[in-house]
Design goal:
alpha+beta; 3 helices; about 35% helix
Length: about 160
C-alpha cells in the first residue's frame, strides 16, 4: 500500500505542478498585459476629452460644444449674498458679491452630512449646526473645524458650469 500512496502522491504533485506552471505562464503574461491597458484607459479618456475639444475647433462656430462641463444653473439663479446647493453633484455655488461666484463641496467637514441651506451669508449643515461663510467656506460656527473644500466652477456667459 505504501507504493500506491507514493504513486498517487507523485501523480497528484506532478499534476499540480503542471497546472501551476500553466497558470503562472498565462497568468503572468495576461496579468501584466491587463494592467497596462487599464492605465491607458484614463489616458484614452483624456484623449477623448481633447478629442471633444477638437471638433468644436473644426466647426469654429459651434459655441455650445466649446463649453466643457455640466451646466449647473444660470447666473441669475444664484442670489447675490446667497447661494444654491446642488445635492446630486455635491456642490454649493455662492455669489458673495455681485458677479463673483464661488464653488464649494456640499459635504460638511464635521461628519459628512450634505449641507441643506444657504441663508444669512452662511452655508448651513442640518446635522450638528455647522455654518460656513459664503465668501470662502471658512467655519462661521462649529462643531466643524475645517472649511468646505473649494470646487472648481466656470462661468460662461450666463451659465455656471461644473467641469
Amino acid at each position: 500500500m505504501d507504493t500506491v500512496n507514493s504513486r498517487r502522491t507523485v501523480l497528484v504533485a506532478a499534476a499540480g505542478a503542471a497546472a501551476l506552471a500553466g497558470c503562472s505562464n498565462s497568468g503572468g503574461g495576461g496579468g501584466s498585459s491587463t494592467p497596462t491597458p487599464a492605465p491607458s484607459a484614463p489616458s484614452g479618456s483624456a484623449s477623448a476629452t481633447a478629442g471633444a475639444s477638437s471638433p468644436p475647433a473644426a466647426s469654429g462656430q459651434s459655441s455650445p460644444p466649446a463649453q466643457a462641463g455640466q451646466v449647473l444653473a444660470k447666473v441669475s439663479d444664484i442670489p447675490v449674498g446667497g447661494g444654491r446647493i446642488f445635492a446630486e453633484q455635491k456642490v454649493v455655488v455662492t455669489q458673495p458679491t455681485a458677479g463673483t461666484f464661488k464653488g464649494f463641496s456640499a459635504i460638511c467637514t464635521h461628519q459628512g452630512c450634505t449641507v441643506s441651506a444657504v441663508a444669512d451669508g452662511t452655508i448651513d449643515c442640518p446635522c450638528h449646526g455647522s455654518k460656513y461663510r459664503i465668501a470662502d467656506a471658512s467655519v462661521a460656527q462649529g462643531p466643524a473645524t475645517r472649511p468646505l473644500p473649494a470646487r472648481q466652477i466656470t462661468v460662461d456667459k450666463d451659465s455656471i458650469l461644473l467641469p
